[in-house]
Design goal:
The radius of gyration is 9 Å and the shape is elongated. It has one helix and no strands. With 27 residues, the chain is an all-alpha fold.
């Protein structure tokens, strides 16, 4: 599902530290 993919992407980004300190940021 799209939700699963989105969740996986968000988790990967958070794990890789691509998020600008805030993992609440969608973009």
């Amino acid at each position: 599902r799209v939700e699963a993919l989105d969740q996986a992407i968000t988790d990967l980004q958070a794990a890789r530290g691509l998020v600008s300190g805030d993992d609440s940021t969608e973009e």
